[in-house]
Design goal:
alpha/beta, Rossmann fold, 2 domains, 12 strands, binds (2R)-2,3-dihydroxypropanoic acid, D-isomer_2-hydroxyacid_DH
C-alpha cells in the first residue's frame, strides 16, 4: 500500500532555534516554505489555494496580506507565546483560528528574567569582560561593586503566567513583591500598584513581563524611568516595543538608572550602537525560551495544535 501523503501547510519562517523542531514538523506535514520565495504573496496565490493551515513563529508573525492571499485558510499555529506579530484582527475577520505555545516556555523565560536581574545588578557580564581583558590584578585591579538582590523590592509589569513565575522565584530571594496589570488579581499574595509609575517609584527592580503590541507601546517611558531612579534596575523579557529605547539609553548614559538587562529590543536584531557601548547594560539576543527542552516542547505543541486542527477543526491552545 502506498504511504498516505502528508498534509500540505504553509510555513512562513523556519523553526531554526532548535535542532528538533523543523524535523518534527517535516515528519508529519509537507510545508510550503514561504521564506524561500522571492515574491511570497504571488507564490501563495499560485500554490496555496487549498491549503488550510499556516505554521509561523512569534518572530515571523503573519500579516493580513498573507491571510487574505489564502482563501482556504482556517488555522495559524505559531511557535512562541507572543502573538503581537500576527494580525489577529484580520484572522478573526476571516474566521481563522490562531494558536500559540503558552505554559511550556514559562519557566525558561522566568529563569532568563532572573539571569538578567542578577547579571545587571551584580555586574556579571562586566566582570566576565574584566577577567578576559586581563584587568584582574592589573592597575585598576579592584572590580566595581554591584547591588544586592536578596531582600530587595521587585516590581513586575504584567502578572500573567510568566510574571507570576518571576514573582514566585522572587519569594525564594526574600523579596517584597508588587505588580501592575490592567486589573488587580485576587488570586495572588502580592500587592497591586495602581499605576506603573507608582510601581517604578517603589521598586528596586522593575521587570517587564507584559504582552507586546499597540496597547503596551512605550509604556516604559522617560517618566517611568525617572520614577525607577538612579538606583533602579530594569529588566525586559517581553517585547522591545514596551520600552522607549531612546529614553532608556539616555537614562543609562546619564546615570539616571543603575543598570538594565534586556533580552528584547525595539528593532531587533538591530541593537543601537549607543546601547552596545554602555557597560551598565546586559544584552541578550532574544533567547529567553531558548533551551533544548523548551524549544522541543514548543515544537511538540505546534505539532499537536496542527494535528488537532486537521482531526477536529479546533486547536488546543487558541489565542
Ligand atoms: C515568544 O515566544 O513570544 C518569544 O518571545 C519568542 O519570540
Amino acid at each position: 500500500m502506498a504511504p498516505a501523503s502528508k498534509p500540505r501547510i504553509v510555513q512562513i519562517g523556519p523553526l531554526s532555534g532548535s535542532p528538533v523542531a523543523q524535523p518534527l514538523i517535516d515528519a508529519h506535514f509537507e510545508p510550503f516554505r514561504l521564506w524561500e520565495e522571492a515574491d511570497p504573496i504571488a507564490a501563495l496565490r499560485r500554490e496555496a489555494g487549498s491549503i488550510t493551515a499556516i505554521v509561523t513563529t512569534a518572530n515571523y508573525g503573519c500579516t493580513r496580506q498573507i491571510i487574505e492571499a489564502m482563501p482556504a485558510l482556517k488555522a495559524i499555529c505559531s511557535w512562541g507565546v507572543g502573538y503581537d506579530s500576527i494580525d489577529i484582527a484580520a484572522a478573526r475577520e476571516h474566521g481563522v483560528l490562531v494558536s500559540n505555545t503558552p505554559d511550556v516556555l514559562t519557566d525558561c523565560v522566568a529563569d532568563t528574567a532572573w539571569g538578567l536581574m542578577i547579571a545587571a545588578s551584580r555586574r556579571i557580564a562586566q566582570g566576565d569582560r574584566f577577567v578576559r581583558e586581563g584587568h584582574w590584578g592589573q592597575v585598576h585591579g579592584s572590580f566595581p561593586l554591584g547591588n544586592r538582590v536578596s531582600g530587595k523590592k521587585l516590581g513586575i509589569l504584567g502578572l500573567g503566567r510568566i510574571g507570576e513565575a518571576i514573582a514566585r522565584r522572587g519569594q525564594g530571594f526574600d523579596m517584597e513583591i508588587r505588580y501592575h496589570n490592567r486589573h488587580a488579581r485576587n488570586d495572588v499574595p502580592w500587592a497591586y500598584a495602581d499605576s506603573l509609575t507608582a510601581l517604578a517609584a517603589w521598586a528596586d527592580f522593575l521587570v517587564i513581563a507584559t504582552v507586546g503590541g499597540a496597547g503596551t507601546h512605550h509604556l516604559v517611558n522617560a517618566s517611568v524611568l525617572e520614577a525607577l531612579g538612579p538606583d533602579g534596575i530594569l529588566v525586559n523579557i517581553s517585547r522591545g516595543s514596551v520600552i522607549d529605547e531612546t529614553a532608556l539609553i539616555q537614562a543609562l548614559q546619564q546615570g539616571k538608572l543603575r543598570s538594565a538587562g534586556l533580552d528584547v529590543f525595539e528593532h531587533e536584531p538591530q541593537v543601537p550602537a549607543a546601547l552596545r557601548s554602555l557597560d551598565n547594560v546586559v544584552l541578550l539576543p532574544h533567547i529567553a525560551s531558548a533551551t533544548h527542552e523548551t524549544r522541543a516542547a514548543m515544537a511538540e505543541l505546534v505539532l499537536h495544535n496542527l494535528q488537532a486542527f486537521f482531526e477536529t477543526g479546533k486547536v488546543l491552545t487558541p489565542v
